[in-house]
Design brief:
This protein is an alpha/beta fold and 331 residues long. The protein is built from 11 helices and 14 strands. Helices cover 31% and strands 18% of the residues. Strand 9, helix 6 and strand 10 form a beta-alpha-beta unit. Helix 7 packs across helix 11. The chain is globular.
Length: 331
């Protein structure tokens, strides 16, 4: 359901005179990685190494790659302008080819104008068509500019909702183009506004109420369990785009102020077995905010976000719960 145009990437590879390339693709496109690699090798005259590890964004680049390859091709994500890597990253859009016209018409009864229009990285190219469609139906729209981690107006990442919060006072609801519910729920929690999803995998637009209730119940249970913990491991991500050492130190200071034992842990790939062997009562992730929430079932010890730790320690109320964000001033 995605079209991938390698023309610009191949031109850039040739310009760089690269010899060895790493190829990162999202999980939903892994079966096409071999075909994409073959196309790059045959047209650019390079050797391509397909990265088997999951890739969830421009920040998710294993540091070990920079010692092996001359450049990295990342398919399906947008660059994070504020990040600087030691080797070139070449971003290749993956454009959804699923028409959204029917869903868009059905969404009119769910949204409240003015409506903020948002998209995940894979659906940025649909933004203009959706805005035009809404305005042709007489719906007033807004599109927000994010901070320096956001490369396109209207874009939302799983760790950054500033394109939404920048226009929160100007809109009454949001329409988000993307799959799943995580981004939409993050926007809702960050703004307090209604969010309707146009999901190319589905036939109907949808709201997030059911998913919201399930996820918040899960997070409440994790927080309650962590309230009994005495020792906390604070995880710092090794990946450059997720490395928040300052935030981790702030959380350790807060824990010690609350008479809890805390230590900093450096980790690249999260693994329940690794955490189990360390033996802490609970953990706090300052790396990708989605890890604690998406993978909740695989951890037998509480894995918290920074905001959830604040609730555990009584410095934030549950009523002010929000998803963790990585913003321009944190990295």
């Amino acid at each position: 359901m995605y079209d991938v145009d390698l023309t610009s990437a191949i031109s850039e590879i040739k310009r760089l005179k690269a010899r060895i390339i790493a190829l990162q693709v999202p999980e939903g496109m892994k079966k096409r990685a071999y075909q994409i690699a073959e196309d790059i090798e045959s047209k650019a005259g390079v050797e391509v190494l397909v990265v088997a590890e999951p890739c969830f964004g421009a920040c998710d680049v294993p540091s070990s790659l920079f010692d092996i390859v001359d450049a990295i091709v990342n398919v399906g994500h947008s660059p994070i302008p504020s990040l600087r890597f030691s080797k070139p990253l070449i971003f290749v859009p993956a454009r959804s080819n699923v028409p959204l016209g029917d869903q868009l018409k059905k969404s009119v009864g769910l949204i409240q104008e003015p409506v903020g229009v948002l998209a995940t990285s894979q659906h940025l190219m649909d933004l203009d068509d959706v805005i035009e469609g809404l305005e042709n139906m007489g719906i007033k729209t807004r599109i927000g500019e994010g901070d320096s981690r956001i490369s396109h107006a209207g874009e939302v990442l799983g760790c950054n909702f500033t394109s939404a919060t920048s226009i929160a006072k100007e809109v009454n609801s949001y329409l988000l183009i993307g799959s799943g519910t995580f981004h939409a729920l993050g926007v809702h929690l960050a703004t307090g506004k209604k969010v309707v999803i146009l999901d190319p995998n589905l036939e109907e637009p949808r709201e997030i109420d059911q998913a919201k209730d399930k996820i918040l119940r899960q997070r409440h249970a994790v927080i309650e369990k962590a309230e009994r913990a005495r020792t906390f491991g604070i995880i710092v991500g090794e990946k450059l785009g997720q490395r928040r050492m300052r935030r981790a130190k702030e959380l350790r200071k807060l824990l010690r102020w609350k008479k809890k034992d805390a230590a900093l842990i450096l980790m690249d790939k999260f693994d329940p077995e690794k955490l189990r062997s360390l033996g802490f009562d609970a953990y706090v992730s300052t790396a990708c905010p989605r890890i604690a929430i998406d993978d909740v079932a695989v951890y037998d010890k509480p894995l918290l976000t920074p905001q959830e730790l604040e609730i555990v320690l009584g410095v934030r109320k549950w009523e002010n719960y929000s998803f963790d964000q990585m913003t321009e001033d944190e990295l």
